[in-house]
What does this fold into?
Amino acid sequence: MLENGFILRHPLGKLTGCESEEIMPEGGFGAVMARAGVGKTALLIQLAIHSLLCNNNVLHISLNDPVKKVGLWYKEVYRNIASQYSIADQEQIFENMLPHRFIMTFEVEGFSVPKLKERLTGLMEQNIFRPHVIFIDGLPFDESQIEPLSDLKVFAKNHSLKAWLTVRIHRDEKPDSDCIQAQLNSVEDLFETIILIQPEGKEIYLKALKGGKPDSVATGLSLDPTTMLIKESDWIKRT
Amino acid sequence: MKHDIFKVRNIGISAHIDSGKTTLTERILFYTKRIHAIHDVKGKDGIGATMDSMELEKERGITIASAATFCEWLDHEINIIDTPGHVDFTIEVERSLRVLDGAILVLCSVGGVQSQSITVDQQMKRYKVPCIAFINKCDRSGANPDRVIKQLREKLGHNSVAIQIPIGLEADFNGVVDLLSMKAFYFDGKNGEIFRTEDIPAELLQEAVKKREELIEAASVFSDELTDAILEEKEITESMIVTALRSGTLSRKLTPVILGSAYKNKGVQPLLDAVTKLLPCPHDTENEALDMDNDEAPVILTADPKKPMVALAFKLEEGQYGQLTYIRVYQGSLAKGDTIVNVRTGRKVKVGRLVRMHASQMEEIESIPAGYIGALFGIDCASGDTFVSPGLSYTLTSMYVPKPVISLAIAAKDSKSEVNMSKALNRFTKEDPTFKTYVSDETGDTIISGMGELHLDVYIERMRREYNAEVTSGVPKVAYRETITRKAEFNYTHRKQTGGSGQYGRIAGYIEPAEEEFIFDNKVKGGAIPTQYIPACEKGFKNCLAKGPKMEFPVTGIKITIDDGASHAVDSSDMAFQAAARGAFLEGYLKAKPVIHEPIMKVVAETPTEFQGTVMGSLNQRRGIIFGTQDEGTMCVIEAQVPLAEMFGYSTILRSLTQGKAQFTMEFATYKQVPQSVAEELMKKAAEDKKGSQKK
It folds into this structure.
């Protein structure tokens, strides 16, 4: 979607060791974990914008915010990205992205994975929208989600989809030896990549708890607290 | 009329379609004893609600024109304007909110914040009108006031605070618990007219205490006294909370939420109490005028009847006794026999009859003091005109008037209808600034433009009923635009020098795309084009915008910069440079890759989830881009952008696709370039039309 003269890498490439667009296989799940208000949605939307710029269709599912608010998130994050990487013709590029993005919002209590599958199937069968990547923001993780998430993984694999999900963790809950929080313990196997957003002092670090390269902690990425963009990624480069 | 201006409330009732505004107003008039019988909006008795006085309103069960009335409650005078919910009649909401001090935002407890709720909220923001939210229809299946309060926060950004909790919901909706007095209110009697206060039911006490704490916490931000009382653990009185809530409401930083069911006669009396306690009086609002004698310096008006008069005419109605002008007096007093000046025209007029309105009925009065709304007869003026006492030159900003988005060609069936149609159009365009009419130069068709299909449909029907003008309507015309997509230079010489006085002018520069409609930039140096001819150049360019060279659609989004030229000592003139500008425009325009733009509408469709896929498919088929869906229990809201050209007749299609269970609203979003295939179709059609008219 960007004009000639740009190379796109994956925003998390430096963490995962995979600089190309693809850091997950088809049917792959990625998790973005953090406490409330630390930057899960901002990171998720950066990943979504990357997918859109790679000409993928993105389905964004929000269990927190209405359609308009999600739309505003995209506008705001994209504007910061365009400014950081000096993208020319940014308005036109944003307009071109819109038909490739579909936002679905649900109330938490009204959401279920079977319902999502039904909606997705309807969208695809009627050729209304065929996503390549799904972003789910706000899904509560508990014991009851094991089976539905497993179902969703099978569905994703069958339809060549990838999915990123946000996972809210709590200050009081202690992680296990691999730093995986309790919420993901029972479903960890479903995830190829798990990214933790961790504030430490004035910095907000990104750590790959799963799917990262061995020294990713040392060469870690961080979020700019002002814009919430990934600081050291340089994922959009001019040739 | 009350003489204590602090006990006056001028309020509007606004909401999405079918939220219950007119039904609520009917109950308000009943409980305040302005009317003695309640009639339903689309009742079997055929009488209709008081505020829907037009036959068409009664038949269709919709409010078309805003209607004013007044009543008394708790020794306060409440002037009410009931407004329509359809976006087609948005001008009625604009004009009402322009002149009112407060508003009630009615929300359906099932539908919640809907598309027109967002529009009227924006209108309230535009005119800085404080509001109370009334969550209506709590008796309906699916009623969920908590969800609506959450939507008020999330979708409208309000700091919404419940000051009541419901006693039962849906079929069990029985009353409300008032969190200020911590009492339960019930509404007995055939029409809910017997107001009963009891202790809070035991099963609701815990929730009431919790919600009251939330209320007090939210209100404390607006009152040091309340904050101190909380911190010092002193008694918190009802009046402390009310004072704090009022402060928050008036500053538009807090929205109190009241619950009820107007149709089931529940919750209206507490709403009236809240209007008197929480909404502003004319003194509480700041009204500003511009002093035309002092470089349009802003001047704050005071609601003092003794000061020179300043008033705004906000609505016109042609009736059997002539033009009725609705007027809001902001300062001074307007009395019968006074001489006043229309600031726009400079004309002095003598005030004849003054009346106060109660829907379609009038009551003669002697004067309209500051802070009040009334009407005058026999004054020729336009909506938005400012009237002042002689010697004053203040002007009030008018209401915002949105541009029409849809047009229709109409033709009278016979010559008698032609005359009547003309009279009707003259009247309607005068009364409604969003309804426009013109005669096409090329085809001679009479074109009417408005805010939607319903808008035009209503006027055609009114022409038939009120003026006996039978008209036929043609295919609606979409308001296409032309614009350019790249920069192009021009260097044009207009020369007619064949002997005697001729014409000469050369203009050079460039044309490029712009965000605004039209920008003219003069960069001519060294007098290459004499300064006196620059305005003529600009005029010449501007005149080209009305009909674009590509398809004769209006041109927009153009910046023209002139940086060179030449003139002749004798033959150059304004006319020569206007002609040169026309030629230069054509030259540059055709090189600048012109394209056609079409209006794109924001379409919000609400449908049961079972029809979600079908509705999305129908929008997709219409070149729509679906931005997202919002799942709200059994209903789903689909947001899309669809070209206006594809939306004609969609209401019928949607009805048939969804067994009549879905509805949609449509408002203008933006202009976008048409696809190549559509552009080719338009050019083909334009060529055929031209051929046809040439044959004639």
